[in-house]
Inverse folding.
């Protein structure tokens, strides 16, 4: 994969491209930026290289690295205040999906005010957000090539979307993902798989999204077990970063489905890693679709060299297990939490081949999450 423009985002891909971050950001006309990151990226030393590049490019910056998984409204409000006080012209995100999503929300808040809920939905802001530059350090969320930001507000995930939220520039350097531990590597990889599967099964799928989704799925089944086993394999890391970008471009066009609706609901209530809950819900939803979406599932079976359509869900479970992920959790799921998750997931199930009933959602949620699924 080489440098290219897709969907309004200029993507610079390859080992060492992070060293050009400062030069490329300055070329866009920005010399004062807020840098968003998270404690893990900062502590691992991954942030140092991009910051050095910004300094070398003559760019003044301030850093906000208090973004946590499933970023919260109070975090982006605080970061937006820092950006406004500093006079930032753009927001640069260095990290996984959480810092990139947070950066997009900050971009909106900087020019429109701090009421996060006001922007829930698509194009709900009035003033043009600040531009965003993304430097992914994980392969999974694909936030680096999409126009959506997911922020947690009072244990509920809120989506903020718009064409202006596609990053102006994405610098995708596989070397920045080499130090990512096995567990978040696996979470991200299963997010890639879920994006690809849901984009391919979407009612809005089209030939271009199909090609991207199947290509991403093939790469993930081939290289995810390798990066989970040997995270220093630069070739495999690069292929997974490619798969992330491809799956993101697929679902940005074709949309997602009920797996993500369930994952966002559970992640909001229990603050769970997004890729983990996707891995738990995807095979269970696939079993629900085994008959109605048989032909599309057969297509995915073919590119993944998996068993027949009824066995594809098992192949997904096996892939997650090979990466060290569990097939279920043992949480205390009370009636209130269950009702909150079903209600949140029912608001918008996306564009899957068929919606799940509340009863089907309850069954899937309990099977995947509960200590005693019979409750």
């Amino acid at each position: 994969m080489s440098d290219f423009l897709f969907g309004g985002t200029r993507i610079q891909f390859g080992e060492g491209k992070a060293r050009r971050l400062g030069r490329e950001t300055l070329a866009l006309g920005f010399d004062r930026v807020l840098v968003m990151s998270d404690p893990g990226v900062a502590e691992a030393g991954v942030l140092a290289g991009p910051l050095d590049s910004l300094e070398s490019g003559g760019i003044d910056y301030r850093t906000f690295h208090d973004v946590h998984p499933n970023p919260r409204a109070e975090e982006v409000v605080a970061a937006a205040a820092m950006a406004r006080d500093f006079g930032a012209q753009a927001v640069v995100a260095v990290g996984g999906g959480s810092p990139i999503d947070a950066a997009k929300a900050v971009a909106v808040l900087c020019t429109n005010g701090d009421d996060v809920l006001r922007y829930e939905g698509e194009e709900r802001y009035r003033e043009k957000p600040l531009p965003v530059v993304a430097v992914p350090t994980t392969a999974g969320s694909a936030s680096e090539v999409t126009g959506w930001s997911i922020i947690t507000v009072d244990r509920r995930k809120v989506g903020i979307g718009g064409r202006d939220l596609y990053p102006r520039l994405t610098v995708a350097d596989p070397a920045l993902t080499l130090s990512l531990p096995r567990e978040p590597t696996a979470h991200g990889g299963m997010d890639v798989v879920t994006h690809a599967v849901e984009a391919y099964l979407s009612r809005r799928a089209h030939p271009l999204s199909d090609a991207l989704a199947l290509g991403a799925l093939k790469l993930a089944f081939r290289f995810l077990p390798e990066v989970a086993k040997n995270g220093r394999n630069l070739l495999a890391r690069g292929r997974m970063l490619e798969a992330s970008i491809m799956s993101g471009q697929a679902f940005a066009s074709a949309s997602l489905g009920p797996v993500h609706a369930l994952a966002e609901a559970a992640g909001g209530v229990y603050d769970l890693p997004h890729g983990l809950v996707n891995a738990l819900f995807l095979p269970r939803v696939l079993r629900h679709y085994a008959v109605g979406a048989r032909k599309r599932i057969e297509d995915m079976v073919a590119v993944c060299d998996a068993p027949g359509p009824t066995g594809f869900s098992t192949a997904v479970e096996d892939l997650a297990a090979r990466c060290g992920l569990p097939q279920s959790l043992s949480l205390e799921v009370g009636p209130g939490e269950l009702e909150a998750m079903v209600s949140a997931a029912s608001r918008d199930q996306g564009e899957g081949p068929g919606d799940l009933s509340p009863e089907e959602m309850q069954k899937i949620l309990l099977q995947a999450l509960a200590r005693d699924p019979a409750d």
Observations:
- The longest strand covers residues 90-95.
- DSSP finds 14 helices and ten strands in the chain.
- The chain has two domains: 4-176, 181-369.
- The chain has a mean pLDDT of 95.
